[in-house]
């Protein structure tokens, strides 16, 4: 146990001026999540819908014996609904619960320097900005970073 | 080693030692070193020394079971005090805090002494080593060497449980594949696996089973301390405390039990003097029995205290707005006991800091129901109260019935299913009927409400027929769920749902089926709730063309007049039902009166009124016998009137109210049909007006003066029932208001939007077809041209919840139907006429 923390710290110390993101596409735009928050990526899976649940909760999936809740990121962003048969699953652990974020397509893991980071512009739109506070201006493309803690906060708050 | 007589003082000392030990151990845990002994603790050592020197010789030990203590142990404790701490540091003592073999009643001190001498930190002190089947007795565990037990961290057991659960799922999958593959060998092996897995499951579950005594024995101390501080004498008796429960459930049940016990000591038991007055022994008896019964664990807490005061409970509930007067009148005593479980309830006039923090029995019920259990109360005044908890044996694994809907699987816990009924043409005893617009099941002489699963899920186009009924046991009684078909019956592992989803009351978890598909587990109570909701919207949608029949259900009291006419009086106008002795009636010049609540209540015989005979109130026919007079007290503008009747028959709820447009009898405003009977509805307002009107100002208080002011306003009325349209119309005409009436919300809204300036106020019913009152008022509020209009709801739906809903939707006032004077005053004040 002791070693793990040390080595983690070691990692952070060495690479503190850049971050790694697991990236994906939604509606033609490029998004990413801090790689340390992503548990795994899974191909499209059979989903059990949940009648009466809000539209962004697309259903439940069986992840190696655990039940994960599938959230349509498109719905969260106020876009047209996710096609669950083709959406890839980005599985994260939020607040102790397994949550799968449904995205259009998966892209590579990239490492970007922190100096590329800047606040997200208002043009993103209110719905997206509440989950994407920052973007990284990489040379080829702009990466919108999805803050999973904000997603988690939104989900927990809706529970009330 | 000598002996000391057990007295209160000695026991106090022993308990003090125990407490001191705890503190010391905690200190060691935190600082890894022996803490400094406080002055009080040092004094303790002195006291103990004194005791050993001055104690009497050879006294008998008191036989009271709840106080029984092994004296040898206290000696041991005393001897060990200075060295106990260092002993604890050096030796690892193996102790079983939780095991309780055959001894029915565990001496409390012994338990506590043992547990504090254990090295384990407080959390895992209750960690279950696989002891239940071990023969070792706790008595000798301190002095002996290591016993037949192992200490295990609870987390490991949880993991074991999870893994076993997963194994069960895999086994299910394998069995399915074996079936498909049709290979003999595979089938044989998978059967063997089946047997093994089931056994493994049972054994693992056993590891987590703890006797309920691990929670209950702590209560000896609680009861002792609490009763002492209140000056009461209470004896705690435990029966069946060796009954075992899964650890998770024990955790969940701890707090509710504590609350119940505290409540009982605090509020249930009388002081010794009061008890003696009632002929009871001065020591109260608190009995906690535990046993297994039909797959559940039953824990019953009974006291022989003062019992529940039904009257106080009803009063408090009414005060707190938890019920309406009508609902109370219909409640049996047993039903009123359940009121104590409502949130916000607390009858203790002094909320003590022991049990009455307003947290209350509702939390108890919620916590017990959360783990799938039930709570019941029975009580008898001055005899005692009994609270029964029924809890499932284990949370994690449930036998369940799987059903299919729209291609997906859902699970219903088996213990909530009473019966399965398939509706086919031909079986005689079961029918689906409609009662007041709702589908119900008639089964063997009883009636149950029905609801379709597709309706609950809000499915618009239903593609499957739903002819199978699952009769469920819910907290709202028995409800029938109509589904397409059942799939299978199996054991499922319950997986909790995300907090976000727990707000959806129809689900209580998810599970993974043998096929790997995820199935949602339905919450029967959530389904029962949805029954209420969907029915009213369905009802209002269906009711378009019946003009003379109201969609509102109104409560009436049915009475017999002295000419044996059956008359119905709207409950909304009835204040009270009273009985008077004939001798109480005083005949005056103006009529007969009775002294009532500090004023004189005029008493009128409605027989004559209904028969249109003379209205002479002085001529009150009284029988010569001493039979009590039945009087229905009605009230208007804070004035009470008593209607004398021969007999009060019944309370009925009816939606079939017919207006009597001909008004043959001016005092009968309509008729109700209930079953095969027809009753005349008394126009209470008119009766009062005519009684009062001769000379005194009528209910139109200074009405004549207000008329010109009222005439300036035009009121829009939305009401679907002819009966109530007539009523309101009459009221407004008499008052002098201009008005227009529309039959439903939609027509009313269209009219408003057509000419927003025409109306100064909207009066609306709630239950209307096409657009109900709530929708109407929210449309008004969201429309810029109309949002300024005051809106008054006049309805029969008058619970606290309904009122809140109405105000929230946008109504300025929310009033009850058939209470004309109140409606009028509201209108007058809103339009600033009066």
Q: Layout of helices and strands, plus pairs?
A:
The complex is a heterodimer of chains A (160) and B (834).
Chain A: H1 2-14, E1 18-26, E2 29-34, E3 38-42, E4 57-63, E5 66-72, H2 73-76, E6 88-94, E7 97-103, E8 105-113, E9 117-119, H3 126-129, E10 134-137, E11 142-145, H4 148-158
Parallel strand pairs in A: 2-11, 5-7
Antiparallel strand pairs in A: 1-2, 1-8, 3-6, 4-5, 6-7, 9-10, 10-11
Chain B: H1 8-31, H2 39-54, H3 71-90, H4 108-117, H5 154-181, H6 184-207, E1 209-211, H7 213-216, H8 218-230, E2 234-239, E3 244-246, H9 247-268, H10 272-277, E4 284-293, E5 296-303, H11 310-319, H12 325-330, H13 333-337, H14 360-370, E6 374-380, E7 384-392, E8 397-405, E9 408-413, E10 417-422, E11 430-435, E12 438-443, E13 446-452, H15 453-456, E14 468-474, E15 477-483, E16 485-493, H16 499-502, E17 507-512, E18 518-522, H17 524-542, E19 554-560, E20 566-570, E21 574-580, E22 585-588, E23 591-596, E24 599-605, H18 606-610, E25 629-636, E26 639-645, E27 647-654, E28 657-659, E29 668-674, E30 677-682, H19 684-693, H20 703-711, E31 714-718, H21 722-735, E32 738-742, H22 745-754, E33 761-764, H23 773-782, E34 791-795, H24 800-809, E35 813-816, H25 820-830
Parallel strand pairs in B: 2-4, 9-18, 13-15, 20-30, 24-26, 31-32, 31-33, 33-34, 34-35
Antiparallel strand pairs in B: 1-3, 4-5, 5-7, 6-7, 8-9, 8-16, 10-14, 11-12, 12-13, 14-15, 17-18, 19-20, 19-27, 21-25, 22-23, 23-24, 25-26, 28-29, 29-30
Helix pairs in contact in B: 1-2, 1-3, 1-4, 2-3, 5-6, 8-9, 9-14, 22-23
